[in-house]
Amino acid sequence: MTITESLKNVKKIIKKSMELSKCRKCECMKESLESIKNVLSNNKENNTLELLKEVEKSLDKLENTEYA
């Protein structure tokens, strides 16, 4: 699997997870998304920009934390 394919798979998993109400309220999801964002923000490669945008959109969709 290429890096591009792997990034697309991660994006797909994030999208599917954000469809679940419990994931939008989970501290674990928030921490994971923030960690990914931090890593991708420091990466200047074009192949990660699409994933970074998805992570940022997902962070905006998070709801008040109910689970840790």
Describe the protein in words:
The chain is mainly α. It has one domain (3-61). The chain contains four helices and no strands. The protein has helices spanning 3-18, 21-24, 27-41, 49-61. Helix 1 runs parallel beside helix 4 and helix 3 packs antiparallel against helix 4 (49-61). The longest helix has 16 residues, at 3-18. It is globular, with a radius of gyration of 12 Å. The termini are far apart.
The value of Rg in angstroms is: 12 Å
- Average pLDDT rating: 92
Helix- and strand-based class?
mainly alpha
Global geometry: globular
Proportion of residues in β-strands? under 5%
Q: Which residue ranges are poorly predicted, with pLDDT under 50 across at least 5 consecutive positions?
A: none
State the helix count.
4
Q: Count of DSSP E strands?
A: 0
Which percent bin holds the helix content?
A: over 70%
Domain count: 1
Helix/strand order: HHHH
- Oligomeric category: single chain
User: What is the CA–CA distance across the termini?
Assistant: 32 Å
Q: Note the main sheet.
A: none
Layout of helices and strands, plus pairs?
Elements: H1 3-18, H2 21-24, H3 27-41, H4 49-61
Structural descriptors:
68 residues, mainly alpha, 4 helices, 0% strand
Brief sketch in words of this structure:
With 68 residues, the chain is mainly α.
